[in-house]
Write a structure and sequence with these properties.
alpha/beta; 196 residues; 5-stranded parallel β-sheet; single chain
Length: 196
């Protein structure tokens, strides 16, 4: 059984993923795997150079993520082309990774499951939410960003209200102890669905 886990910036989906991991669930973090592939795949490097030019590869031989972010931030077409390079490879790596797991169910964590209309790939989906002021505080602390920068990033994302309608389960992540209890209860519920 494959469960999709998603949530907007600052919602704490990584924290929730770690809580599931602590329950013995295998977690695939799409962002982390995308970064690894971007650094290690010569094929991807060639495609990035074709898309952005030679300067996309930094002196250390790795893609310059700051440079890429600057290029795609306000260019939806370029971002789409970048995604066309990365996403299919992450997807095929996931298929391979999946066969090596032996937990009752696995969690695929990704930021834009609903935005990309990928929910049909999962047996169930979980959305992690948090009050906006809490998200802003978390991201400011984590990324050293200004309130304005964080608000702009939140505005670029789908509102939680739209995603909640599409998700099977919601975890409001406001208080860590409460979140632990919710994850534990949902884990038991998901195990019962596996065995149903």
């Amino acid at each position: 059984m494959i469960v999709g886990l998603t949530g907007g910036i600052g919602s704490g989906k990584t924290t929730v993923a770690k809580l599931f991991q602590a329950q013995g669930v295998a977690i695939f973090v799409a962002d982390t795997e995308a970064k690894k592939l971007m650094e290690t795949s010569a094929e991807i490097h060639q495609e990035l150079i074709a898309l952005f030019g030679d300067e996309v590869i930094a002196e250390n031989g790795l893609p310059d993520r700051k440079f890429i972010a600057g290029k795609v931030f306000n260019d939806k077409d370029l971002l789409e082309q970048l995604n066309q390079i990365i996403h299919p490879r992450v997807a095929s790596y996931f298929q391979e990774w999946k066969t090596q797991q032996n937990t009752p169910y696995i969690i695929y964590e990704a930021a834009i499951i609903f935005e990309k209309n990928l929910q049909h790939r999962f047996d169930y989906t979980i959305i992690v939410t948090a009050p906006e002021e809490e998200k802003i505080k978390r991201v400011m602390k984590r990324d050293n960003s200004s309130e304005e920068e964080v608000k702009a990033r939140i505005k670029n994302q789908w509102p939680d209200s739209d995603k909640i309608k599409l998700a099977d389960f919601q975890i409001e992540n406001n208080d860590l102890e409460l979140t632990k209890t919710k994850v534990s209860a949902l884990h038991k519920h998901l195990l019962s669905l596996v065995n149903a």
